[in-house]
């Protein structure tokens, strides 16, 4: 899929549905739900961003996301639990390599909702969307070496571990070893 087509599609980010989740665009009205998890250091320990210091910061971030949606260059969904209509995290594409028809995904889930398979459900839906709707050839995800839970999730959705790049990213002032998992469209189709 071409860059312009992706940007056009995400300028009106589509809503995705799974049995227990709705994936939709983030809204400023999600600020309290996002701040509930984004303020905690353990949540951001293995992420590139630091905890939100206050709800004002969260609202400003969500305002910024809204601006990026309008230009079509933001590819992350709010993950909303149907059971209680709360935004419980985010999941989506962090980047695209348009010349290679590939993308990287990322995700974060409120700890109160972890251990229920909800992150797996969201990631599976984003992978499905990437292969079926965006005609991607490959989808990958990265994780910090110590984040074994994230690696297990990636493997659970059919991604294969491809190795570590030693101290390849400087995150929060520290060089971190980054693992990579990936799945090809044909592997995803065969697993279905």
Summary, kept brief:
35% of the residues lie in helices and 33% in strands. The chain contains seven helices and eight strands; from the N terminus they run H-E-E-H-H-H-E-E-E-H-E-H-E-E-H.
Describe this structure in words.
This protein has 192 residues and is α+β, with helices and mostly antiparallel strands. The protein contains 7 helices and 8 strands, in the order αββαααβββαβαββα. Helix 2 (31-38) crosses helix 4 (55-71). The longest helix has 17 residues, at 55-71. The radius of gyration is 16 Å and the shape is globular. The mean pLDDT is 96.
User: Kindly, what is the distance between the CA atoms of the first and last residues, rounded to a whole number of angstroms?
Assistant: 23 Å
Largest sheet: 8 strands, mixed
Number of strands: 8
* Global Rg: 16 Å
Arrangement of strands in the largest sheet: 1-2-3-4-5-6-8-7
Mean pLDDT over the full residue set: 96
Counted by DSSP, the helix tally is 7
Outline the low-pLDDT stretches. none
Derived from helix and strand composition plus strand pairing, the structural class reads: alpha+beta
The shape, in one word, is: globular
């Amino acid at each position: 899929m071409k860059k312009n087509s992706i940007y056009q599609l995400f300028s009106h980010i589509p809503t995705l549905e799974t049995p227990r989740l709705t994936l939709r665009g983030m809204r400023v009205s999600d600020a309290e739900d996002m701040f509930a998890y984004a303020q905690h250091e353990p949540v951001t320990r293995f992420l590139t961003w630091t905890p939100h210091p206050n709800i004002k910061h969260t609202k400003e971030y969500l305002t910024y996301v809204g601006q990026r949606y309008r230009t079509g260059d933001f590819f992350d969904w709010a993950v909303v639990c149907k059971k209680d209509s709360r935004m419980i995290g985010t999941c989506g594409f962090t980047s695209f390599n348009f010349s290679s028809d590939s993308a990287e995904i990322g995700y974060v889930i409120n700890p109160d909702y972890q251990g229920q398979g909800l992150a797996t459900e969201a990631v599976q839906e984003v992978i499905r969307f990437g292969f079926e709707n965006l005609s991607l050839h490959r989808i990958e995800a990265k994780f910090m070496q110590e984040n074994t839970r994230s690696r297990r999730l990636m493997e659970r959705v059919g991604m294969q571990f491809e190795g570590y790049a030693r101290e390849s990213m400087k995150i929060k002032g520290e060089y971190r070893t980054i693992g990579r998992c990936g799945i090809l469209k044909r592997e995803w189709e065969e697993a279905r």
